[in-house]
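Why does residue order matter? Because the sequence determines the fold. Keep that principle in mind as you read this record.
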Amino acid sequence: MEHGARSFRYRSLILVIHFIVVGQKMPKWVQTGYAEYEKRLPKACQLKLVELPMATRGKTGSVDKYKVEEAKRIEVAIPKGAALVILDENGQQPSTLKFADKLESWLGNGQDIALVVGGPDGLHADLIQKATWKWSLSKLTLPHPMVRVLVAEQIYRAWSVIQNHPYHRE
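Structure:
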């Protein structure tokens, strides 16, 4: 789709991206950065943070056990009817313009999105299999706190591309 010559059929729809993350108690800079981009998004494209507790790690636990426990919590948090999108190191790494196309298709679809970030051990394979799209921010390993801010910024940036707003070109 050509940017700047977009159709706005979806304007009457509201897209809610339920940003479901495993991990709580983020530093102030993360909360501030995330909140900045969340508040910039219009009602037509809402980003709602859902923080879930990590599985309690112990000396006798296993990574698979932690992933299963976290997957159960994630599945409960996914709103009925929402499309599952996960952040995964093996996911697609779209350019900003390609991601704007993806966001625009979500807007036109009328289906909410559950965008999921797993805990420190990643996501359980069963949850990964259920995803409609796997997104990778980078080949680099990124700290979970930074991912929250980056995702919020990229969603806002994609929105600005769709709206032909100058933010993307600044």
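The helical segments are 28-40, 63-77, 96-109, 125-130, 144-162.
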